[in-house]
Amino acid sequence: MSSRVNPQIRDELTAFGFKDGDKCYSCSTCTVTCPLATPENPFPRKIVRYLQLGLQDKLRQSPEPWLCYYCGDCSTQCPRGADPGETMMAARRYLTALYDWTGFAKKFYMSEKFELMAVGYVALLVGLIMLMFNTGQPDWQHADVNSLWPARYVELADLAMAAVLSFLLLSNVWRAYRAVLGELRGKIPMRLYLGQLKELLVNFLTQKKFAGCSDRMPWIIHLLIMTGYTTVFILVVVLLNGLTFDNLRFQRGWPEYPLLHPIRLLGYYATVAILLGTSYALWGRWKRTKPAYQHSHPTDWMFLILLQLTTLTGIFIHFGRLLDWPLFTYALYVIHMMVAVPMLLLEVPFAKWAHLAYRPLILYLLKVKEVYQAQNTAS
Amino acid sequence: MDKPSAHEYDALVVGSGIAGLEAALNLADQDFKVAIVERDASIGGKMIRLSKVFPTLDCASCITTPKMAAAAHHPNITIYTYCELRSLERQDNRLVARLRQKPRYVSVEKCIGCRQCEYQCPVMVPDAEQGGFAARKAIYIPFSNAIPQKALIDADHCILCGRCAKVCPTKAVNYLEMPEDLVLQSDAAIIATGYEVTPLANKPQYGNGSLANVITAMQMERLLAPHGPYNRLLRPSDGKQPDAVAYIQCAASRDQTVGIPYCSRVCCMYTIKQAMLISGALPLADVTVYYIDIRAFGKGYEQFFQNAQAMGIQFIKAKPAIAGNAVDGSVVLRYEAQEEDGRIVTAQHDLVVLSLGLVPGWSPQGVCSLACGADGFIKTPQPKIAPSLTELPGVFVAGAAAGPKDIVDSIAEAGGAAMEAANYLATRRRGGSALVAAA
């Protein structure tokens, strides 16, 4: 099979964080010491080689970048200082851009200025919308967000946003699926796809492959962030208006739920998990405590900072409500939305958040492929 | 302590490996008075410890021993073994070397090398000269063709039982011997301090030296040597005759993680040599060499490599990692089949040899003002046109002290260094102290 070389790929890759990959002399120490590389899906050397040669199509079809969780063993042991772990990270960023049909992800990764402006514009827009569209009758007696922005309308906005996000993310997921399975796509019967759906769910919820890394701490931190984030996502999108059940409502008027109410406990868990996780990651990136934290792309910072700011403003809104300070609560609510919405709208389909879909998807597809091939050789 | 005794020479050679011996003999044959300073108890350096040499497959000790004997018996050469060079500096236009003669606890003058003490000694110690695979006694002659053939006591392991002193026919044993300081004066010096093998620490993918049946190439030299520990090729853990032997090239060369980014030059060729010797010793054994690049650059080397391939030695382009020991003691490797489809392959070998690289055998730090390069080898300011010159006038360098080098190049460079030293000495004799000042 012929391969096309994209000689320009190298100039672009630098912006995606590809730095020392050229130093690689293909000894494959990285691949054979990687605890996650498998006989059928060896990495990182293969991916480093693709990038060195500019084999963009080969890279697009490669599932390997999504199988690496960046423990950094390869970078520590690389005899050339070629930092294969970071090259894999750059490959994931590049794949996110390749999967994205809008071209937005590429711009987001390649220009810090564009990234900042995009986040800023969306934030401003959200702020303006919230100032323009509200009931105009704030409750100055009690801190009740519903008096200005009733939960049922926010819920509608939520759902609209979720629809847009899902469309963008799922269309990119479709492209990832086409790229990775290639010609096998049409041959695999539907029942195999359905039969292995459990794999998708298990990998999404447990990230068990991550636990195969020699250093398990990042897996725990990642689980904290993921479960915290998922919990809060369910709270603010699914349960914002409580699915019409009054005592499931997340955005609730004054007074607050009793301390041990499940919704409150879930909120606390999510808050603590995300704060712990993001603080650990931010501190690690700042102090460069691990190989994986040696090089931080602007999008890595943006993602962690937005997530932490969303959580912090959320905590303060909660305090505002408990202390029953109306103005403080309303002002923070606007700021909270101005941080949270850009994070979701920009990060989920176009940037680092997208891996929450790609990682389990790729593992699922590989499992489907494996079962299909096993059946084929058996029959 | 008595005033250190002074000895005067034309040239001082530090190190008595093949480069040091060659340089010393070249100078001594021109009637220069030469002193050889050696830190080991025997002269001969690394070469006398090897089995055979590439690409001729000559027996290493058969061609080194005559050089050692020639130096030992040369009227113009004085050999100081078991001496530590404590300082080397220029004073009043002469080089002054301060040595410390380490105590052998056996009088060199009285000892006749009969080994009666060795037979009587009850203490067994792993013998580093046999790769740690055999035992020696706490009083011992370093190895069978050591020069001088004189015993010494390993004070760390001696239990002072007194048997050796009792049995010695010449009453040579003296447990109370003290270190002795010597001062040597010379006009020129040649540094021929050679190399050591890279350590295995910080290489978790090779087990950090803790896995059974993973040995170094220097240990394999002993297993293959005619007077080796087992007298035949067996693997150390259980004495099994290995059916499959593997080599891992660049195990600690061209590797920044151990601070050795350079190529050690000799590993490809000694591996090919050892692989051939194994094929000769065990004709049915499979020998596999895992390599990144084969560097067969010298005269006859490429042909040597091709001969090895023709003999059926398998060369696989990969740098494996060791996954551990299997139940039967064999070593499990993982490698990426780059020449095929790039999948990860797991392979088992009875014995795995790590082709370790070369690091400097000696550092001038704290001894003299010689400069070293970033790699730690002696700096040669004119590496192309005058490779034996150092930054100090009158001090020359030969062999692996200046950088990894094989025997052929070491001997050639030792000849060059001796010639540079001879020119330097001759100029001085013609009243050319001006040269020293100018340099």
Word description of this protein:
The complex is a heterodimer of chains A (379) and B (439). Chain A is 66% helix and 0% strand. Chain A has 379 residues and is an all-alpha fold. In chain A, helix 6 packs antiparallel against helix 7 and helix 13 (217-238) packs across helix 14 (262-287). Chain B has helices spanning 18-29, 60-73, 116-120, 163-167, 217-224, 267-281, 301-310, 407-429, 433-438; strands spanning 5-8, 11-14, 34-37, 52-53, 58-59, 77-80, 83-91, 94-101, 124-126, 135-137, 139-140, 152-153, 180-186, 188-191, 195-197, 214-216, 244-248, 286-291, 314-317, 321-325, 331-336, 344-349, 351-354, 358-360, 395-397. In chain B, helix 6 (267-281) runs parallel beside helix 7 (301-310). Chain B is globular, with a radius of gyration of 23 Å. The relative contact order of chain B is 0.16. Residues 434-439 of chain B have low confidence and may be disordered. The interface between A and B is medium-sized, with 21 and 21 residues.
Structural topology:
The complex is a heterodimer of chains A (379) and B (439).
Chain A: H1 9-16, H2 29-33, H3 45-53, H4 56-60, H5 73-77, H6 84-99, H7 104-110, H8 112-132, H9 151-181, H10 184-187, H11 190-195, H12 197-206, H13 217-238, H14 262-287, H15 298-323, H16 326-350, H17 355-378
Helix pairs in contact in A: 3-6, 6-7, 7-8, 8-16, 9-16, 9-17, 12-17, 13-14, 14-15, 15-16
Chain B: E1 5-8, E2 11-14, H1 18-29, E3 34-37, E4 52-53, E5 58-59, H2 60-73, E6 77-80, E7 83-91, E8 94-101, H3 116-120, E9 124-126, E10 135-137, E11 139-140, E12 152-153, H4 163-167, E13 180-186, E14 188-191, E15 195-197, E16 214-216, H5 217-224, E17 244-248, H6 267-281, E18 286-291, H7 301-310, E19 314-317, E20 321-325, E21 331-336, E22 344-349, E23 351-354, E24 358-360, E25 395-397, H8 407-429, H9 433-438
Parallel strand pairs in B: 1-13, 2-3, 2-14, 3-6, 14-25, 16-23, 17-18, 17-23, 18-19
Antiparallel strand pairs in B: 4-5, 7-8, 8-13, 9-10, 11-12, 15-24, 20-21, 21-22
